[in-house]
Design brief:
The protein is α+β, with helices and mostly antiparallel strands. It has two domains: 229 residues, Aspartate Aminotransferase, domain 2; 118 residues, Aspartate Aminotransferase, domain 1 (Alpha-Beta Complex), CATH 3.90.1150. Helix content is 39%, strand content 14%. The protein contains eleven helices and 15 strands. Helix 1 packs across helix 7 and helix 2 packs across helix 7. The two termini are 20 Å apart.
C-alpha cells in the first residue's frame, strides 16, 4: 500500500508527460523556456489572479514573497507554530523575528481570534498557513491586516486547489505561495513553487528577485536569489494540470468518505461549510501514536505525522522567546496527529481496509 500513489497517476498520463518532456528536449530552452510562461498563464486563470511567478520551490516562494514586501532584520512576521519548518525558516533567514499565534483546535490553522493581540509596531507581515489542504480563515485575518495596513502572505503549500468562500487558495491575500513538491495536490517530478498576486509592483519585484535581482540582462538592481523553475518541471506540470480539476474532486470525495467511515469515532480536521479542502493529508488524532503507527505498519498500512514538533520547540528556535506550554493547541496536536494514506487514486477497497485496521488497532 502506498501512502501517496504517484505511479497510478503517471500511468494514466505518461504519454502527455513524455510529449511535454520531448518538447523541451527538442527546443533546448531548459531555463525560462516557453513552458514557463504557458504554465504561469494557466495557473493565473485557475486562481483568478493577475500574476503568477513560478519558482524553484515552495520554500523559495515564501522567501521571494517576504523579500518582495521588504522584510528586513528587526521586523516581525506573524505565523503559526504548527507548520512545516520552512514557514519559520524563511522568516528567520531574513533576520526577522518570528511571532507565533496558536492554532484553532478544530481546523489546525492559525486562530484569527488571537491575531490582533500579537500585532506590534514592528509587524510587517502576517503569514497564515493553509494546513492539510484547508485554507486558513482569511476574512477576519484580512480585516485585521487591512486595519493595520499589513500585507498577508498565504503559505498554501498544501492547499492549492482548495477554496474559501468561492475564492481559490493562493488568491485570498496580498501574495499566495504554493509548492509543486511531488506529494502536493499539484506536484511535479522535483521541486517547484509559485507566487500569486494582483499587485503589479510586487509581481515585478518577485520576477526580478527570482533571477538574482536582475532588472534587465546583467543589470542587477537588488539582491535576489537563483529561484527559477526548470522548464522541464513546467512541462510536466502542464501535463499534470490537465487532470488536476478531476483530481480535486476525487480528493474531496475520498476525504469525505474517510470522515463518513470513521463516523465521529476519532477527531478529524473540521471543514467549514463555506470551504473546500483538497486533503493534501487526511489527518486524525490518536492516543499513543507511535504504538498505533507501529501496529498499522505491521498490517501494511503506512502513516505519517505532520508535524511532530511545533516551531517554538525546534532546537534552532530556542532563542526566539517561547517556551513549552505557550501554544497549548499546537503542542497538543503535535503529539496526537497522524495522517492516513491519501491520494486521488485511493480505491474504496483499500480505504475500507485502512479504516478497518485502524479501528481494530484502536
Amino acid at each position: 500500500m502506498e501512502f501517496i500513489d504517484l505511479k497510478t497517476q503517471y500511468d494514466s498520463i505518461h504519454e502527455d508527460i513524455t510529449h511535454q518532456i520531448n518538447k523541451v528536449l527538442s527546443h533546448g530552452q531548459y531555463i525560462m523556456g516557453p513552458e514557463i510562461g504557458e504554465l504561469e498563464s494557466e495557473l493565473s486563470r485557475f486562481i483568478n489572479s493577475t500574476h503568477c511567478i513560478t519558482n524553484s520551490s515552495g520554500t523559495d516562494a515564501l522567501l521571494l514573497a517576504l523579500m518582495a514586501i521588504g522584510i528586513r532584520p528587526g521586523d516581525e512576521v506573524i505565523t503559526t507554530p504548527f507548520t512545516f519548518f520552512a514557514t519559520g525558516e524563511m522568516i528567520s533567514l531574513l533576520g526577522a523575528k518570528i511571532v507565533l499565534v496558536d492554532i484553532d483546535n478544530e481546523t489546525y490553522n492559525l486562530d484569527a481570534r488571537l491575531l490582533e493581540s500579537a500585532i506590534t509596531s514592528k509587524t510587517k507581515a502576517i503569514m497564515p498557513v493553509s494546513l492539510y489542504g484547508l485554507c486558513a480563515d482569511f476574512d477576519p485575518i484580512n480585516e485585521i491586516a487591512n486595519k493595520y495596513k499589513i500585507p498577508v502572505i498565504e503559505d498554501a503549500a498544501q492547499s492549492f486547489g482548495a477554496s474559501y468562500k468561492n475564492k481559490k487558495s493562493c488568491g485570498l491575500s496580498t501574495i499566495g505561495c504554493t509548492s509543486f513538491f511531488p506529494s502536493k495536490p499539484l506536484g511535479g517530478y522535483g521541486d517547484g513553487g509559485a507566487c500569486f498576486t494582483n499587485d503589479p509592483a510586487l509581481a515585478l519585484k518577485m520576477r526580478e528577485l527570482r533571477i538574482h535581482g536582475q532588472e534587465s540582462r546583467y543589470n542587477h538592481t537588488s539582491i535576489g536569489i537563483n529561484g527559477r523553475l526548470d522548464t522541464l518541471q513546467a512541462g510536466i506540470l502542464l501535463a499534470k494540470f490537465k487532470i488536476f480539476p478531476k483530481e480535486i474532486e476525487l480528493r474531496k470525495k475520498i476525504g469525505a468518505r474517510y470522515t463518513q467511515l470513521l463516523d465521529g469515532r476519532l477527531k478529524t480536521q473540521k471543514i467549514p461549510s463555506e470551504q473546500t479542502c483538497v486533503y493534501a493529508q487526511y489527518t486524525i488524532e490518536v492516543e499513543n501514536r507511535s504504538d498505533v503507527q507501529e501496529k498499522l505498519k505491521n498490517v501494511g498500512v503506512p502513516t505519517s505525522v505532520h508535524y511532530p514538533i511545533p516551531l517554538h520547540l525546534q532546537p534552532v528556535f530556542k532563542g526566539i522567546g517561547y517556551n513549552q506550554g505557550d501554544f497549548p493547541n499546537a503542542e497538543n496536536a503535535s503529539k496526537r496527529v497522524m495522517s492516513l494514506p491519501m491520494h486521488p487514486y485511493l480505491d474504496e477497497v483499500t480505504q475500507d481496509k485502512i479504516v478497518s485496521e485502524l479501528l481494530k488497532v484502536l
